[in-house]
Amino acid sequence: MGASRLVGRDMEIAQLDKALAEAAEHGGALFVAGEAGIGKTSLLEVATSNARGRGYSVLSVTGLESEADLPFAGLHQLLQPVLPSVGALPGPQKNALLTALGMRAGAPPEVFLVGLATLSLMDKVADERPLVVVADDF
User: Fold this and answer.
1) I want to staple 50 with a disulfide (CB 3.0 to 4.6 A). Which of 2, 7, 127, 131 is the partner?
2) How many helices and strands (H and E) does the chain possess?
3) What is the DSSP code (8-state) at residue 6?
4) Is residue 14 part of a domain?
5) Structural domains counted in the chain
């Protein structure tokens, strides 16, 4: 479906496209695993492009070794596109998330509320159109 294709990866791309189509109707999860350097990131890039081509929303995050010791760094990267909607969250969720992301001073937030805020933001996005969440190198 997408313009970018990987040489010799037609079968894998077809599986990803099938998973995207099925997820739009039923939800789902997909795990891409393999040895370092075999092209997992490239496959995820094609899947992301194809999802956007289908009109899906995409939230993505790439793990960085330099951020491994920074709490919630990956979450901040993942939620960056939807942070303008944080104001619609209930107060405790909003405060917990903004504190976790270093956007508000305060005591370390309850992890449960951070998770709930994350799910609430994703749910809001998914109400509008299918949502694909891509986490690479974690």
Assistant:
1) 2
2) 5, 2
3) -
4) yes
5) 2
- Residue of 75, 60, 61, 52 whose CA lies nearest to 129: 52
Residue 1 forms part of a structural domain? yes
Distance CA 116, CA 112 (A): 6
108 and 86 co-located in one domain: yes
Q: Is 31 helix (H, G, I), strand (E, B) or coil?
A: coil
Whether residues 21 and 76 share a domain: the answer is no
Q: Residue 114 burial by CB count (10 A; 0-12/13-18/19+): exposed, middle or buried?
A: buried
Domain hosting 6: range is 1-55
In angstroms, the Cα distances linking 39 to 18, 74, 109 are: 19, 21, 37
Model pLDDT for residues 44-72, shown as the tens digit of each residue: 999 999 999 999 999 999 999 888 889 99
3-state SS, residue 47: helix
Let me know if residue 135 belongs to a domain: no
CA distances from 95 to 46, 76, 85, 86 (A): 36, 14, 13, 9
- Residue range 69-101, pLDDT digits in tens: 899 999 999 999 999 999 999 999 999 999 999
